[in-house]
Amino acid sequence: MKSEVRREAACWGRCVLGPPAAVGPAGGSSCVRWLHVAALVVAAFLGGCNPSVPGTGVPGGVRAAGQDRASGSRIGEPVENPGDGPAPRVAFCAYEPDVGDEKVGCPEMEEVSRQWSAGELLPEAVFEAAYSVRGDDSCRSMGLELMYRLRPELFGREHAELLVAIAFVELKYEARYEPDVLDTALQGVEESEAIGDPCLASRAWRRVAYYYFETHQPERAGEAVGAAADWVEGCDDRKEQGRVLRNLAEWYRQTEDQLGQFEALKQALETAEPGSREYLLYLAQIAELRVDLGDVADEGDRLARLLEQAEDGGEVDLAFELTMHLAGVYRDLGRHGDAMELLTSACALAQGTPHSGEKSSLVNLVRAWVLLGMDRVDDAHVILARLPVDCFDRSVPRYSHLRWLIEAELKFREGRFDEAVGWFERVLDDGLAEPEPKWRAMYGLARVARGRGDMGVARHWLWEAVKAIEVQREKTASAFWSLAYLSQREGLYRMWLETLLEAWQAGTEAGQGEAGRGPSVGAAGDDREAASSGDVGDLDGRQLQKAFVDGVPSSDDLLVAVERVMSQAFVADLFRDRGGVPGIAGDPDTRAAWMKIAGSWPTGKALRETLPADVPVLVYLPLEDSLLLLEVTRARVDVHRIEQPRQAWLWLVDKLDSSIRNDRILPPDQLEGIGGILLSSVIDDLPGDGSPVGFILGGVLEVLPVAALRVGGRYVVEICAPFELPNLRSATWLDRHEPPRGGARVLAVAYGKDLEYPRKEADLLVRSGFRVTLLAGSGATVANVRSGLGTPELIHFATHSKGPRRITRGAPPAIRTDEAEMELYDGVITVSDIQKQKLNAGLVVLSGCETRVGRAGMQEQGYGALSRAVLVAGADAVMASRWRVGDETTYALMAEFYARYPDLGRAVALAQAQRAMIASSRVTSTMLRGDARPLVIFRQFAGREKRRIPYADPWSWAAFTMVGRWD
After folding, report:
1. Which of 483, 647, 670, 735 has the fewest CB atoms within 10 Å of its CB?
2. What angle do CA 951, 953, 955 make, to 5 degrees?
3. Rounded Cα–Cα distance for residues 12 and 35 (Å)
4. CA 235 to CA 353: how far, in whole Å?
5. In sequence order, which residues have a C-beta less than 8 Å from that of residue 726 and are 6 or more positions away?
6. Peptide bond into 692 cis (omega under 30)
7. Which long-range contacts (CB under 8 A, 24 or more apart) does 233-240 make?
8. 209 with 221: CB under 8 angstroms?
9. What are the tens digits of pLDDT across the range 634-690?
10. Residues 779, 780, 784, 788, CA torsion sign
């Protein structure tokens, strides 16, 4: 008992003071628990495993007591600046192997050796014992020594197994890639083939393949994997079959065939038992592949869930890998605080596992990467300077490439452009570089060129980076439907658009372009217009290259580029083989149909022709230093550049959003200010008769209540009938249904703790001529709703609902976002549930709270919102809310809407209903949904539970917007 306590206490202490030389299997899972406890306790009280950097509140890594050999200072302690003033404290994940400590031996193997020498153990038992300690740093060397001594003692199958085992331990655990290890593996192949054991031969060939993978010889690795695949056909071991497929996936990865990698991992997944270690491993590799390809539309939720499972199963190595991958996702998404939290957990996980030193160095490397994303250049420099030059083995080149990218970024931030170029080019010149570091290096070279004022070079490298990503999309679109291209890719595409806009503006000012209107002129423009006569998807977007790199872009070019950026994930999900466009869903070869869509870009002319002659669409996208507004009609594209930096927009939108969420008001001055900026340049072109106008709101603007914005003292809804589109192409790709008239099938779902108003909303649909299926109260079950969604032409949900919520669970923390959901009698219906349906509805009304709210920070319109799921499932329009709405006023708005909807288009009916609310003199005292608080605990808030709100107040009617088709 005392020894167990000492072992646990030592593990805790090593987390704070430095990692152990080894943590044996006996104390492994227990140590992991104590590492987690240590990280939390020391963070709260001692500033140890999870210190905050003063003045920032950002968590750091493990504060170690070890010495930095380069500087002699204590790792994790404050570092003095050579300049004036103290430097900020920088936290490190420290690894110090056995400094001054007594060397711990391996009593277990010493006893095995003694018993073997005394004739008390057979060679087979010695082999089993020696192989069993392969994961124990303190015992592995002695175990290997015993296995080498066993070579003359074993014969036949046992000898072949011994050779395969030695090669495995040397490669996997000792990271030895010497010729003698390869010779051992090849001898194992020869002997296993000679005895005709297909499973053993397969394992032997996999060891050979492993050697070639780690020494970057993909051709030979492919031959070895092929041989393993031939032998495994005669092996009935499902695990071995899965491992061969995993090796095949690795070969596809090294040859940059991500689609092949995905298919191999999918097949491997089929060989594993659900819930097993192998099953979790294959799922993790699939999730990481999706992230590498840019599919982070779920903000890492897939990885976070797998991380929880790995922790629950005690899979420390896998948990470390997932934690590091997820930290990278959060860094690229700008969730720096979440990334730093995970890196602290990764530091704790690294201690006491094989290769702890390299893992700790990797944590520090990624920490520097995150600090750069936070503009803490000095801190990143301090961490990078303390990493040994050779801390990353070239057997894992992506770590080296990340270090080179960080070095380049530091030089760029310091204005040392030539040195930055050298580091970026080093990545591109390395034949081992994977696609992601390559396009990041191209992006970096473009930024350097812009910093130097060399726009021609910048345009070249930006286009090369965009092409590199688009090539990946074309290759993998059939397998990965939701390639949203968010995270770091968003920065690349934004700079690409900024540079394209600057080139267009320079051309128009020089008289070489179109002065902002109509089709482009000049040779480049003539080439494009000649190719623009086809339908959407007929033109390969690479014909834009000449205009972007060499010529003057047209306004149509800008439209195409903006559309490409803003429609990635929505278009992918829309064409998924479950709802959406019948032509794709019903295609016998969905992959071929989708590849055609993914591999081509629309022309500006084709995009314009998707719109009716009398419906303009305003496309807004905040760039770094301005706001891009495209006024699109069937005839032309007018370009407006509003001089308002992106950070200013963040402040304006956050201020309005805070007023809505905290004070439950929409201040007229804020609505007037934002509306004036957005619409002053186009107000004269808008129809004044209340007809439809489309809005596509990019980035931070997607949360704005368009109908309530004011221009010249009037609400937008008083000028036109605003509706929203996810992107321009959705105008034609969404299904089209006529408004429901006599005989229309209607599904009304009403559920809430207080059924009064939900039931009243449902009763609005129970009118002569409509065939209504009413699911109310206990009838509004999850099963009933799911079974009833497929056939109705109009669906109305009057239920409590909520948008996505970010949550933190577990230790280490798995930070993820819960799905948006609607409450039903026996559970909830989520975004995922809805997207699995095939809807036939012309309109779906989601009258609950926050049904238009998507994930924070996502560029794709409404990603994760219930409204988006409805469109993806096949409906052609959805009415949804942006905030927590009131019961009585929502019912009043719905009554006005349904009185008009059967005879008017969707957008016009909603606009007229909102105008009727504005004209009303009624005032309601209403309980805001979701705003109730327990009175016993929060008595001070009791007076805020009910508020008197005029029907004319934007709060009562502006939350709801029409998304999708407007007619």
Report:
1. 647
2. 100
3. 6
4. 32
5. 567, 570, 696, 860, 861, 862, 868, 871, 963, 964
6. no
7. 233/198, 234/198, 235/198, 235/199, 235/202, 237/199, 238/271, 238/272, 239/271, 239/272, 239/278, 240/199, 240/202, 240/203
8. yes
9. 999 999 998 888 888 888 888 888 888 777 778 888 999 999 999 988 988 888 788
10. positive
Q: What 3-state DSSP class applies to 551?
A: coil
Q: Is 880 helix (H, G, I), strand (E, B) or coil?
A: strand
Contact 906, 739 (CB under 8 A): yes
8 Å CB contact between 148 and 131:
no
d(CA 240, CA 218): 21
Question: What's the CA gap between 466 and 294, in Å, rounded?
Answer: 12
Strand 745-751 relative to strand 771-776, pairing: parallel
Model confidence at 860: pLDDT above 70: no
pLDDT score of 387: 84
**For residues 559 and 354, what is the distance between their CA atoms, to the nearest angstrom?**
52
Residue 950: count other Cβ atoms within 10 Å of its Cβ.
Answer: 16
- What size, in residues, is the chain? 967
Q: pLDDT band at 705, cuts 50/70/90?
A: very high
| pLDDT over 70 (residue 340) | yes
- 166 phi and psi, to 5 degrees? -60, -45
Residue 258 has pLDDT above 90, yes or no: no
| Residue carrying the six token digits 């605080």 | 337
pLDDT for 66 beyond 50: no
Rounded to the nearest integer, the mean pLDDT of the chain is 78
- Greatest mean pLDDT range, 299-313, 785-799, 801-815: 785-799
User: pLDDT by residue (tens digit) across 38-64?
Assistant: 333 233 322 333 333 222 333 333 223
For residues 313 and 315, give the distance between their C-alpha atoms in angstroms, rounded to a whole number. 6
Give one DSSP letter per residue of 298-343, joined into a string: TTTHHHHHHHHHHHHTT-HHHHHHHHHHHHHHHHHTT-HHHHHHHH
Residue with tokens 């592995």: 140
Q: What pTM does this model have?
A: 0.80
Helix (H, G, I), strand (E, B) or coil at 795: strand
